[in-house]
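seq:
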Amino acid sequence: MDAELIAYLDGRFRESADQIQSFREETLRRFEQVDARFEQADARFEQVDDSLEQAAKTARHILVMLEDLCDEVHLAAEGLMGVSERLERHEREGTLTFETIKGWLEPFFNSVEARSRELDARSVQLDVPIKDLDNRVGILESWMARQGKDVMDALAQMLARHRAKSPLPSE
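struct:
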């Protein structure tokens, strides 16, 4: 082979070798860039994993708190139901007590009214002295004062006077 051809081929081989070397360097540089990008992606995935782990912990904590809150709400509801039941029972007992007291006092009011009429009739027949008339007027005035009062107030006052005089009968 001729020296020129050999020089030419050597030049071409050198050029090819240089090109291959530059391609290798370029490929290596690009692979290093890809590796750096993969490392960045791995770091981001670790951050995302950490964030997801933290979110999972927070979600578990919130669920525990919600369960506690549900328990507290159930306890409060049960307490409210107990209070409502006691209030209804006291309401029934109070109604029964007032009805009982009213039953005790009605005959008393009726007898007082009948006695007042009887005393009026007697005083007219007997021509009672003024002192007796003053007593009768006092009785009538107190009766008139009670007429303007609430029935429950009058019952409460009469019950108080009755209790002061004698104890209540056993039921």
